[in-house]
Amino acid sequence: MSEDSQAVSMTINGHVYTGHCEPRLTLADFIRHECGLTGTHLGCEHGVCGACTIIVDGRSTRACLMLAVQADGCVITTVEGLASGAELNPLQEAFWNNHGLQCGFCTPGMLMCATEFLEGNPDPTAQEVRECISGNLCRCTGYDAIVRSVLDAAAELRR
Ligand code: FES
Ligand code: FES
């Protein structure tokens, strides 16, 4: 442990994680390497691709742009927090049913972005879904299947 390291503690998916880290460590690296939650992906590492999107205190957040020390005391949800054991949540199920993923690299970020979006807008239009995911890059799907997935999940959640 270096002299600069600082104690951090945060709640991730209902579990408290404590540790020490250097002030320059990103939240994404803390979550992946210190907490072992590798579902949060890293693409560009400068806030462009959205692969690292998680929810911090209720807001979708780029984990590559936040430092771990800034998240001290925060409540965080990562993609690992969506399913209940082996049971996918309705959004994950909709991605599965609509082929909303191919390689899956963008998927954790898409899911977390859409999770926050549907909480605020439970009956969105396709255009609103497109705007929601416009900050998340996908190199495989052409986005249509992702939009269908989010709309299907919204319909399921309204039942
Ligand atoms: Fe964070 Fe690309 S890895 S936005
Ligand atoms: Fe491959 Fe989106 S499914 S990048």
Word description of this protein:
Helix 2 packs across helix 5. The protein has helices spanning 27-34, 90-97, 107-120, 126-132, 144-158, and strands at residues 6-12, 15-21, 53-56, 59-62, 75-77. The chain has a five-stranded mixed beta sheet, sandwiched between helices. The protein folds into two domains: 6-81, Ubiquitin-like (UB roll), CATH 3.10.20; 90-158, Orthogonal Bundle (DNA polymerase, domain 1). The chain contains five helices and five strands. A hairpin with a 2-residue loop joins strand 3 and strand 4 (59-62). The mean pLDDT is 97. With 159 residues, it is α+β, with helices and mostly antiparallel strands.
- CATH topology of the largest domain: the name is Ubiquitin-like (UB roll)
Question: Regarding quaternary structure, how should these chains be classified?
Answer: single chain
SS-derived structural category = alpha+beta
Helix content, binned percent: 25-40%
How are the strands of the largest sheet arranged? Answer: 2-1-5-3-4
CATH class of the largest domain: Alpha Beta
Q: Quickly give the CATH architecture of the largest domain.
A: Roll
Tell me the Rg in angstroms: 16 Å
Give the count of helical stretches: 5
Ends distance = 51 Å
Mean of the pLDDT scores? 97
The total domain count is 2
pLDDT < 50 stretches = none
CATH homologous superfamily title of the largest domain: Beta-grasp domain
Task: Work out the strand percent.
Answer: 15-25%
Q: Based on DSSP secondary structure assignment, what is the total number of beta strands?
A: 5
Q: Note the main sheet.
A: 5 strands, mixed
